[in-house]
Amino acid sequence: MILVRHGRTTANASGTLAGRLPGVKLDERGVEQASRAAERIAPVPLALAVTSPMERCQQTLSVILEGRPEQPAVVVEDGVSECDYGEWQGEKLSTLARRKLWKTVQAQPSAVTFPGGESMQAMQARGVEAVRRHDAAVTAAHGDSAVWLCVSHGDLIKAILADALGMHLDLFQRLHVDPASISVVRYGEGRPSVLATNTHAGDLSWLAPQGSSKRAPAKKGRKPSRRRNDAVVGGGSGPAEGLDKV
Fold it and tell me: Which helix (H) or strand (E) holds 149?
């Protein structure tokens, strides 16, 4: 699973918490960031593209998919939508930072429910459920070497990464997910593997299934096969020589 945060928006640039407000779009820099992400992802065949319903994510996805010879199916998924910040959305971050709840968001996010909105635990639960559900469906339909894309939001991606890393939600503020950054998670047989977080540059062609690593779709009635996810003692030889064989 390739996780992409939307590019920078007008709200990001002005220091405003956009939340689920309508009409929040990428600014010029955000479009450039999405274009760079598109260049990195271009060599990788995509079995599916999932996006938050927020306009900024759909706009980012459109930039990523523009010009690809093979267009994946696109699913708009409420489960990976922005956190419902309730009364906080539309406020300046500098104003929110002075509120008592801000300190709890930083130190104990699992205890936070935004006034008039949702809890951060609920945000994580729906996000993790959504990506694991789509990952299982992609594996069943396309085999365990298939790659798919999810375009979402900073806090939601951090929560998904925390789950994959086995981190408590209260530690997720240690992670950074910048606009248009790319993270990569592989859901294996025994546990997830986090292959990359918050990357801004670098060739992603090593994610593309190669040769015999392509698998046939799972047969009806048979449990989908999952690539073994055992850690290589000593660290292994790297993606160019065998990451897809692990």
Answer: strand 148-152
